[in-house]
Amino acid sequence: MKAIPQDYQDDMQAAALAYMRRHEAEHLGASQALINRAAEHLECALGVARPLAEKLVLRAYGELHSTATPYRVDLDATSPHTVALVDTRTGLTHAVPAALIAQHLVASPKRKRLTTAN
Q1: What's the pLDDT tens digit per position in 39-58?
Q2: CA nearest 59: which of 14, 2, 8, 25?
């Protein structure tokens, strides 16, 4: 499989974010519908393969709803079993086990339904 250039992915993620900002008010309380529409937009209007479109839309969705939070994921310090979160206000890094995230966010009956990212 041919590698997809990072600048192309960045541009398509920016397009997804712009699309979701334009259409967010149409989907208040229905985030899955907004995610699906944005993925369809990337696929149909911009020719992005569906698996990549879904991945980029989920990243853009995270950006859309996390701009006010001071926490960022440190990808270099993150492992398959631990997520490193940096508090940009204090500079402190917090190690959060993936199992804890799953327990409180994924396995919780109160969770919101989102598409899985492969």
Answers
A1: 999 999 999 999 999 999 99
A2: 14
Alpha-carbon distances of 50 from 4, 45, 53, 67, rounded to whole Å:
14, 12, 5, 26
Q: For residue 47, which of 13, 2, 12 has the smallest C-alpha distance?
A: 12
Q: If 0-12 CB within 10 Å is exposed, 13-18 middle and 19+ buried, where does residue 16 land?
A: buried
Name which of 53, 4, 61, 52 is nearest 32 in CA terms: 61
In the chain, count of helices (H) and strands (E)?
A: 4, 3
DSSP 105: I
Overall pTM > 0.70? no
User: Could you give the count of Cα atoms lying within 13 Å of 46 in the half-sphere of its Cβ?
Assistant: 22
How far out from the chain centre does Cα 72 lie?
A: 12
Q: Which two tokens stand for residue 107?
A: 């396995």
Which residues of 1-118 form beta strands (DSSP E)? Answer: 71-73, 82-87, 93-97
Q: How many CB atoms lie within 10 A of CB 102?
A: 11
